[in-house]
Amino acid sequence: MKHMDKASAWNTFKKVMHYIGSYRILLILSVLTACGAVVLSLYAPILFGDAIDCMITAGNVDFALIGRILIQILIVVCGSGILTWSMSLINNRMTYHVVQDIRIDAIQRVQNLPLSYLDTHSTGDLESRMIADVDQLSDGLLLGFSQLFSGIVTIFVTLIFMLARSWQITLLVTALTPLSFFVAKFIASHSYELFHQQSKIRGEETALAEEMITGQHAVRAFGYEDRASERFRMINDSLEECGWKAVFVSSLTNPSTRCINSLIYALVALIGAGLITVGSLTVGGLSVLLSYASQYMKPFNDISAVISELQNALACAARVFDLIEANPESKDSAFDLETENGSITAEGVSFSYLPERPLLNKISFSAKAGKRIAIVGPTGCGKTTLINLLMRFYDVSAGVIQADDRDIRTISRHSLRKRYGMVLQDTWLKSGTIRENIAFGRPDASEEEIVSAAKQSHSWEFIRRMPKGLDTEVSEDSLSQGQKQLLCIARVMLSVPSVLILDEATSSIDTRTELQVQDAFDRLMKGRTSFVVAHRLSTIRSADEILVMKDGNIIERGNHDELLKKNGFYHDLYESQFARAD
Question: Angle, to 10 degrees, between the axis of helix 2-20 and the axis of helix 283-324?
Answer without folding.
Answer: 90
